[in-house]
Amino acid sequence: MVKALLIVMDGAGDRALKELGGKTPLEVARKPNMDGLAARGITGLMYAIAPGIRPGSDTAHLAIFGYDPYATYSGRGAFEALGAGLELGEGDVAFRTNFATVNEDWVVVDRRAGRYIEGAEELEKALNEIRIESHPEVEIVFKHTVEHRGVLILRGTSLSNKVSDVDPHKLGVRVPKAEPLDNDPSSKVTAEVLNEFTKKSYEVLSKHPLNKERERKGLPPANIVLARGAGKLPKVPSLREKYGLKAATIAGITLIKGVSRALGMEVLEVKGATGGLNTDVNAKFSKALEALNSGYDLVFLHIKGTDAASHDGNVRAKVSMIERIDRALGGFLSKVDLSDLLITITSDHATPITVRDHTGDAVPILMAWDELVSDEVSSFSERACMRGGLHVIRGTDLMNLIANFLGKLEKFGE
């Protein structure tokens, strides 16, 4: 039985860079294993959502897994909560959060409160003791995840994700109030609850002994919680229901774990998978091999480091990360046979070094399996894959292709 490995190098797509002689990081990186797969397989370009549309990582992955993000996306907060291991009910609404530093007038001084917050679990405990007096039926669930980040769940029966952020996304401005984004009464209630929580988070955290100690040490106090990205649990069929695929995910970042869990995929934990440039790529590929040998039809392997380097504008780090991935891929390829394994490699979006953010550019894609009719492309890059036999596809096409090659799709019509 044929199985599939889908590798997404987050943000790996790029543009022609003057400092690389008009080439992209994928073109200059030494990557004999990716190039070898391109030569054996079929290549092309992919727009995760549509030409020119700048995808978020959440919407891009929904599309890559075969779900129309315009119909199914209900906010990032829900994915962050699921990725952090929290349960979400149908009436709950979840938010991404930052511990931040504000002055007495609630003007933002540091959106990340210095980024590293030792003892954040104590702040988490204090926040979970907050009660919402205006709507006592709503329960507060807060979880610190990593560094300055956390997840907030407002647990209730009729809450809405149609509320604005209280994170202003910049320094030197006052924390805004959450506002309902439509006329539904549940949106008004949710905004009121979020505003009361934000106020009480400041009252609790500004007096907390941990923050008093941080101030004595000259560190910015983590004296408020700024929430953004309201989201509800999406109502979608699982990947298994939609495509007949038993699937597993290997990822280091909370968001991708959450998207996967929302689609019924099993998330496999890997020691050393950090979601950054220091992630253990070899350990990820080892876990992928183990999963493929353990009954999964599809293993999704996500690598964030390429995107992290892009957001930093660090071209050398991006090239180096691509080369590290390729070396780990080489070790993996020495242990598998493409007669019964379909390997797909792509990116969820471009994050050009010159932009330092996601763009709507097409990204390269390759699919390699012994039964595929190969094209004339012999390297893996944006420029080379323009000539590929897959031509140009959208993210929502990809899972159909994979499921088709694995013999999992029902025939349309007679």
Give the count of structural domains. 2
**Mean of the pLDDT scores?**
96
In the CATH classification, which architecture of the largest domain applies?
A: 3-Layer(aba) Sandwich
Which bin fits the share of residues in helices?
Answer: 25-40%
First and last CA, distance: 25 Å
Strand order of the largest sheet: 9-8-10-1-11-12-2-13
Kindly report the CATH topology of the largest domain. Answer: Alkaline Phosphatase, subunit A
Could you name the CATH homologous superfamily of the largest domain? Alkaline Phosphatase, subunit A
H-E order = EHHEHHHEEHEEHHEHEHEHEHHEEHEH
The count of DSSP E runs of length 2 or more, i.e. the number of strands, is: 13
Principal-axes geometry comes out as globular
Query: Can you identify the CATH class of the largest domain?
Result: Alpha Beta
How many distinct helices? 15
- The structural class is alpha/beta
CA radius of gyration: 22 Å
Biggest sheet statistics: 8 strands, mixed
Strand content: 15-25%
Parts with pLDDT < 50 across at least 5 consecutive residues: none
